Amino acid sequence: MKPTLIAIDGPAASGKSTIAAALACKLGYLYFDTGVMYRAATWAALDRGLAVSDEAAVTALTESLQIDVKPPSVDDGRQYDVLCDGVDVTWAIRSPEVDANVSPVSVYPGVRSALTAQQRRIGLRGDVVMVGRDIGTVVLPEAPLKIYLDASAEERARRRLREVQARGDQSQTYESILDNVKHRDAIDSGRATAPLKAAPDAVVIDSTGLSVDEVVARVEQLVAREPEA
Ligand code: CDP
């Protein structure tokens, strides 16, 4: 029987979202990308003119935010709408400014506990593929299937560059993306609260050199062999 909770973690731009969305579609599960919540909180802090270094203010703001993920309302390549207090921030949360500030915001324990509580509530409803950095370790440690998806930093930067160019953003270079990916990984792995790491019982997949279809097929094999949650 299929596991009803699937946790997918891994470093920046490792293909988690693409794999998770494809898998959720095949299984008829909800796909939930927790990164959008950290990105929305970061966008809101920048939008309100807060100093990202002001932990108390950023935490209080995050606790007050209404972040929603809904089916896509616009046919512009988006997988879903992200709303922050009713404002459509689907593309704004992918800006270089948010890329540069999201990992420092994600270090704050108060920000994490506010968002983790919401993620756990969604996850425990079941039939969900949840993606992030700490899903298998902190958010849903009871998930019967945990995947840690990795790839070399260079491969990940190449993939992210293709994504940003596909949506018409020509402002970013391979080098700037590679720097951001490495910088975020260092902060995400080094933080004290819920650092990026594979859960002891996660299956690690290095997707360097593998196509999306090959990775999805590998994960589907794992789904088929798992006992029911
Ligand atoms: O898509 P990409 O891999 O570039 O990043 P993301 O999944 O959208 O996450 C953006 C940032 O949010 C990460 O670099 C982490 O700092 C943070 N994050 C986190 O701390 N915990 C999560 N469960 C998800 C994201």
Task: State the gist of this model.
The protein is an alpha/beta fold and 229 residues long. The protein contains nine helices and eight strands.
Can you walk me through this structure?
The chain is α/β, with parallel strands linked by helices and 229 residues long. It has nine helices and eight strands. The strands form two sheets. A five-stranded parallel sheet has the order 2-6-1-7-8. Helix 3 runs parallel beside helix 5 and helix 4 runs parallel beside helix 8. 48% of the residues lie in helices and 15% in strands. The protein starts with a strand and ends with a helix. The structure holds cytidine-5'-diphosphate (CDP). Cytidine-5'-diphosphate (CDP) binds next to helix 2, helix 4 and helix 8.
Strand order of the largest sheet: 2-6-1-7-8
Supply the helix-strand structural class.
Answer: alpha/beta
Task: Give helix and strand order, one letter per element, not per position.
Answer: EHEHHEEEHHEHEHHEH
Range of strand content: 5-15%
Task: Count up the helices.
Answer: 9
General shape: globular
Number of strands: 8
Which stretches of 5+ consecutive residues score pLDDT under 50?
Answer: none
Radius of gyration, rounded? 17 Å
